[in-house]
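Hey, sorry to bother you again with one of my protein questions. I've been puzzling over a protein and I'd love to understand its fold better. Take your time with it, there's no hurry, and the full record follows here:
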Amino acid sequence: MNKPVIFVGDMQQHPHPVDFVQALPERFPDHELCYLGDFLDSYVSQPLAQVTSLKLMLQQVEAGVAKCVLSNHDAGYAYPALNGWCSGWNSSTAAMVCAGPLANRMQKLLMPCVQYTPANGANVLVTHAGVSQVWLDALDEDISSTQLETFAHTIPSPYYWIGRARGGIDPTSGPLWCDWDEEFIPVPDMVQVVGHTHKKTIQR
């Protein structure tokens, strides 16, 4: 990891996402940006602003100044065949995303996970909602970042599992849906950065 990394939480919570995303590279030119997703389905900004901020982020990824992990809300538009609509799903957003090339760009540029190796040597895994030991136990195998990418590009797969804690019927939730309060069990020796589950304070 050559540059310091700024992790940017779920964009749904920002009332002015376009201004915020646009300003980040200028404000932090010596940092890499790593977005945790959820640009779409916001209740505090309009669909056009959400899609515009998504496009700006994708331009940053293409320019090599940012990375972004796939999230449950964004995946429902990038992969319409998932039928994984989330709360806040919007037909206006779908018309702007699914009917044109934007969905293909999302599939290409949004990453199933991002892995960093800081100077201290500890691997850091970044996903939208987290890799839980419960999920690994259900798969009966360990998982690598390469396997996560394979899972994510195979639809359906356990990567897209939605457990009961999030209103689904799968045995537990995968890295897009894992509920930190009800489903997450830490994986030994794995440092993770996640978004998804609302918290009033940072939890370490």
